[in-house]
Structure formats: structure tokens, C-alpha cells
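Entry 12.
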Amino acid sequence: MMALLLGVNQKPATGGGLVDEPQGAKVACYPLAFTYTTIDSASFSPDGRFLAVGSSDAEIRSKISIWDLKAKKWTEKKSADRKTFPSYIENTQGVKARFLNYTFDGRSLVLFQGGALRILDAASLVEQSYIELNLPLLYPDRHERTTVWDMEVSPVENKAALLIGGSPTETSGLLRVYDLVTKRMTFEWKFKDDVNAGSISFSPDGKKIAVVAHERFGNSRGKGNPDVAVLDLDSGNVKLWLDTGGDTTIHTVFSSDNELVTVSLWNVWHLNRGAIKFWDVNTGKMIRQISGAPFGIHAQVEISREGKILFGYTGKQKNVYHATATVNQRFRLWELPSGKMLAESSDILPLSAMSDPPEF
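Predicted 3D structure (C-alpha cells):
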């Protein structure tokens, strides 16, 4: 596996409007190769100087490495596990570290491992503390009951949120927020829907969280049913139930405290569908969209820390025996708020027969 560090050729973009037209520059990149190792997660430091990479080997032994982006070399400090954490799978040799995130001030790294949140010093990678989540493990027949689908760290304070499926019952879910200093749970939202996948996103001020559950809210799909919930952490209430349309939303991110951006799951029946949509979280109305045809913007959307650049995955897929196979893995970058396309990537990696979209 390789982590790709991406840089944009600063050629000025041409054209205008929220229309997907060939324009702008290509993206340059360089790979970081890990021999006999799988990259499980990665996170840029808030100042853009370092990239923390969480990886595991064939025996599922986890390691965290730090790449210095300015010097273009690995730092010498690497973490070693000194504690045993509970695994969701019995008799495993190790537990992968997932959802690696820097805290807002860059002083700590937070990751989910086994049944706990681990907080590490970002400079030394020495563990500062950990939070036991007390989640139920697998059923005796090894069918999954509890899965942590996503974890995000607040952009303004020492808090982390987790989206959990299969808890407290097999067909329900939880959203929890923990204070990383006091180690106390400060917010919990229970929903009576089976969360078999999903993602979460903090607003820039840290006061709201958007939850995507693949149109499982209401146990139905399609237009007329919400697939995104926006929660107000101060009041503890659902601020907005958002129906994003007939295509299932798979990922979302706040572009501002009052604006949400969504992209859809790849639709096997309509391979050219997909668009980045912008929503007013106060009214639930769609403000604008960046068209995806014929590329099919889907799977993931991200916005740079300063809020000026938007990322959208545009890799193509095709039907293969009632499933989907990846044709290529690509993405594009747009300028906000104008919507001008700044750059596009070439193919990211050589593909196997049924490659999944990459995680960014």
C-alpha cells in the first residue's frame, strides 16, 4: 500500500461557474512505500508540517510513523504498544489502530484501537491516556454486533466523536462525544436504526455534527426519507433531518458553520450520476451543486483546513456480475466558493480486478 502526498501545480484556473469543465492544472504526487505493511489511517498536522501514518503488518501489529513534509524524511520516533486492549474478534494476534487524528492544536494524536480511544503525545508518540469505551464485543457465532464506523476530532477543542453501529442493540446505533482531557462522555445520541455504515463531520466551530447513515434513518431508501442528521451539541437536539434526494448520500463535510456539502454513494444502475451538493443547515434547502456528469462525483468529499479548496473523488466504476469493479481511481480539486475546477489527478494506483475506491 502507498500513501500519496499531493501537490497542485499552481497554474491559474480558467473558466467559471459551477460547471464541470476541463480546466486548471494536473496534480503532482509522490509515494511513500511501506514494505509488507498496510496503511490503516493517516492525518496531517494542523500546521501542515507532518503526516502521521498508522500501519500494521501481517501479524496486525500496529505502528505509528511520522513523515516530515518539509524535510521529506521519516522522523526517528515510532510508537510501540505497551498495553493490551480488547479485540472485537476473539483470538487475534493484535488489534489495528484506526481513525488516526491530530487534535486541533497539533499536540496530541488520537486513534481508536480495540475498545478504546488512545491519546498520544504528538512529538514523542508516548501514550498520555486512554478512554475505555465499554462496547459489547462479537456474538459467540462471530457475527458483528458492534462496529465503530467513524471517528472525528473537534477542530476547536479536545473532543472526539464516534459513530457506532450495533449498539446498544443489534439493530441500533450511537453517536458519542468524549472529552479527551477529563475522559468523560459529554454527548450521546441513540437512534433506532441499523447503522451498517456511515460517517460523521464536525462544523468548523465544533458546535454541530452531521451524521450520514446511508438512508437508514427511517429504515427506508429513496427520495422522501432523510439520510443526514445535523445535531446541535449545545442543545442536544437534532437541528435538521436532511433528505438529499434519490441517490444515497455516503459522505458529508461542513464548508462553513451553516453550510453542508454532500456526495452520493456510487449507484450501480446509474453509473454517470453524482454531484457535490451544498445545503443550508438552517433551512434544509439545497443552495447549489457542482455537476458530476459524466464522471460521477461520489464516495468522498473533503475541504481544506482553511476552507478554500474542495476535494471530490471522481473514479469510475462498472457493473460486473451484479457488483461493481473500479475502472480508475481519480479525484478533482475545486476552488471555494467560486466552484472553479483547479486540478485533476491521473490514475492513482494500478488496479486489481475488483479494486475498491481509495480512502482519502
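Annotation: Confidence is low (pLDDT under 50) at residues 1-21, 88-93. Residues 195 and 260 are 21 Å apart (CA to CA).
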